[in-house]
Amino acid sequence: MPRYFALAAIVGSLLASHAAAQPGDPAAAYPNKPVKVIVTVPAGGGVDTVTRIVTEKLQQKLGQPFVIENRGGAGGNIAAEAVFTAEPDGYTQMASQPAPITTSVFLHKKLNFDPTQFEPVAIMSKIPNVLLVRQDFPAKTAQEFMAYVRANSGKLNYASQGIGTTSHLTAELFQTLTGTKLVHVPYKGTGPALNDIVAGHVDLIFMQLEAAIKLHEAGNARILAVTTDKRLPMLPDVPTMTEAGVPNLVSDTWNAITAPPKTPREIVAKLNAAVNDVLAEPEVQARFNTLSLLPGGGNPEAMGRFVKEESRRWGEVIRAANVPVN
């Protein structure tokens, strides 16, 4: 099953979700007051940007303010704890990157929330990941890269946005699948990591397309491959890692909305349908395209299965790589 939801699938998923509310249905009057959306990162980037695009349209569609509250820190765990303990009435939602609901349980000895108990609402966007190398890296193609890495196993270093981040875990998955060894150089965030890629202090990084493509287009670094299951429309000439000879190296970042445990199913369905409608709007798709994002979508059940599979898959990577647990 493709990792990215086609618009046709989105439309299909709405048929059941748009059924008229019945008397006594908790969703009949929902929302009748402002909805608070707690975002797992500070204002200004990543999931915050996506959430503001989506909630701006949700306000118009549902007739109530969607109030953003940024609670960054601890890889999203601070926000997740606040949402986990919130009243499950539909008026508190969480907008997050994958970590709080997938990998946090493997990276922390103790959590004050159970990631498996959140109610999946909708995946807002998918952010493709790519292999970015310093501008003067000897290999010029993905195939040359693989040959060079195998010939220099243990000698090359890779940057990450921090221990346990997608960039770190993708590189660990790469090493497991190829039987090669890279030296990890963790940074505190995207900016410092990219600064050293551009300066030539580190060799490569697996990271989100939205930031990497700017360096690629400016000639300050080079994208050699994408870690999606098929080529991307914005980089049609760049092969997948599977085409480069590494089957199963599929990794992307995504942003999702989840609700507190035991939020009524009818409210979740109504909000899911509204998000799907928003994602299908040409204006939203155009804004996503400008940010090198792909729209998400689908129903809550599909999101639940996807999150469970992502948690299982990356949990195996974390254990195999002996990633430190805090």
Description:
Residues 4-21 have low confidence and may be disordered. The protein is built from eleven helices and ten strands. The longest helix is centred in the last third of the chain and has 22 residues, at 300-321. The two termini are 34 Å apart. It is an alpha/beta fold and 326 residues long. Strands 1, 2, 3, 4, 5, 6, 7, 8, 9 and 10 form a ten-stranded mixed β-sheet that branches. It is 39% helix and 18% strand.
Gist of the model:
By secondary structure, the protein is of the alpha/beta class.
What features would you highlight for this structure?
326 residues, alpha/beta, 10-stranded mixed β-sheet, 11 helices, globular
Alpha-carbon Rg, integer: 20 Å
Low-confidence stretches: 4-21
Q: Got a strand count?
A: 10
The main sheet comes to: 10 strands, mixed
Instruction: Tell me the structural class.
Output: alpha/beta
Q: Count the DSSP helices.
A: 11
* Beta fraction: 15-25%
Mean pLDDT: 90
Principal-axis shape equals globular
* Distance, first to last CA: 34 Å
- How much helicity do the residues have? 25-40%
